[in-house]
Design goal:
The structure is a single chain. Helix 2 packs antiparallel against helix 3, helix 6 crosses helix 10 and helix 13 crosses helix 14. By secondary structure, the chain is mostly helical. 60% of the residues lie in helices and 3% in strands. The protein is extended and about 90 Å long. The N terminus is likely disordered. It folds into 3 domains: 79 residues, no CATH class; 129 residues, no CATH class; 74 residues, no CATH class.
Length: 354
């Protein structure tokens, strides 16, 4: 006989887990966001410290302070930390040692030591200039011209079949589809917007430094050369051939001049001429100069180099601002008097126009 309130049979299964509700999901998202913010806050309180041994092995009987150097670095801006050490510690220390050796040098050995110290000091000055250059870089992104999906698939299929350069006629009826041609033509309009955004990119040379002006033209040349490379690629060329075959001349005629590029190729492009001039500009000599003689040598080299500005389409107003910003530099850690800056600027500009 069975009990009155009991039940018999197979054991009952555990209740199914409840499905997450919108409230539960919101609570989970909130918890994850709080954890993320807490992680960011914790990371902001961290720093990087490098301990450098001055001896091969630590001696426990000697104080650690005489055997270890501690260097604090900024993990988010490492070159900024290095520049600070070079500019405010290593260079002043090196210059002080060099000045002391020059005052005390009476024999050939001291003279040799002074020459070695001067060489180290020059290399530190060059390092300061390069680190400063790394802080003043201008980023110009490389754009990618997207080919229509059907064209990309057709060209891929043709390559697999051994046809390296198929023609628009090989696409068959797809090439006659009006909607398809309209989409391709709209894609060409997007290319124009993307390319024009790069070719018309400029900066106010009077508000920046010489290093920034040089870096701007070199980065712009790289971005524009990347566009030329894509324009010369077969998928892009095929797109133009297709639209020309289908009488879409309004989209293809004058495309290169309209976007600020040269029909004769990258070597004839004005940006290539400007970057060629500025790439060889001897600004590094001026930035690394440690004495008046070094400054004068650097200025003489700039006199000779800036004469080439007459052979390129570098705007006159921009050239004047460029020479003025150049003359406001002597060394990254020292500024010349304004009267000297203006005088040298006038001399540089006179050397350009005569």
């Amino acid at each position: 006989m069975s009990g009155g309130g009991g039940s018999s049979g197979a054991p009952q299964s555990a209740p199914a887990a409840p499905t997450p509700t919108a409230a539960n999901q919101a609570a989970a998202d909130f918890a994850r966001e709080r954890a993320r913010q807490a992680g960011l806050a914790a990371a902001a309180t961290f720093t990087t410290v490098a301990y450098i041994k001055t001896v091969p092995a630590i001696d426990p009987n000697v104080s650690f302070s005489s055997q270890l150097h501690a260097v604090q670095l900024n993990p988010t801006a490492p070159f900024e930390s290095i520049l600070s050490y070079v500019r405010h510690c290593f260079l002043p220390y090196s210059r002080a040692i060099m000045a002391s050796s020059l005052d005390d040098g009476d024999d050939k050995k001291d003279a040799a030591n002074a020459a070695a110290i001067r060489g180290v000091n020059n290399k530190l000055s060059e390092l300061e200039g390069e680190l400063l250059r790394s802080q003043q870089t201008i980023d110009i992104p490389l754009i990618t011209l997207e080919v229509h999906k059907l064209i990309a698939e057709f060209l891929k299929k043709s390559r697999n079949e051994g046809k390296a350069t198929p023609t628009p006629e090989d696409m068959g009826s797809v090439a006659n589809d009006t909607n398809f041609l309209n989409e391709v033509q709209r894609g060409l309009g997007e290319w124009k917007k993307q390319i024009t955004a790069v070719t018309k990119l400029s900066r106010d040379v009077s508000t920046g430094t010489t290093v920034q002006e040089i870096d701007f033209w070199l980065k712009k040349e790289r971005a524009i050369h990347h566009i030329y490379e894509q324009r010369e690629s077969y998928p892009i060329e095929f797109t133009f051939q297709l639209l020309k075959k289908k009488q879409r001349h309004l989209a293809t005629f004058g495309f290169m001049p309209d976007v600020g590029l040269c029909d004769d190729g990258r070597d004839k492009d004005p940006v290539h001429k400007c970057s060629s001039l500025l790439r060889e500009f001897p600004i590094a000599k001026l930035l690394s100069a440690t004495d008046l003689e070094g400054v004068m040598v650097a200025i003489e080299k700039m006199f000779a180099h800036l004469k080439n500005i007459r052979r390129i389409a570098y705007p006159i107003v921009r050239a004047i601002a460029f020479t003025h910003s150049t003359c406001s530099l002597s060394s990254p850690s020292a500024s010349p008097p304004k009267s000297l800056t203006n005088s040298v600027s006038c001399l540089l500009w006179c050397s350009v126009i005569t």
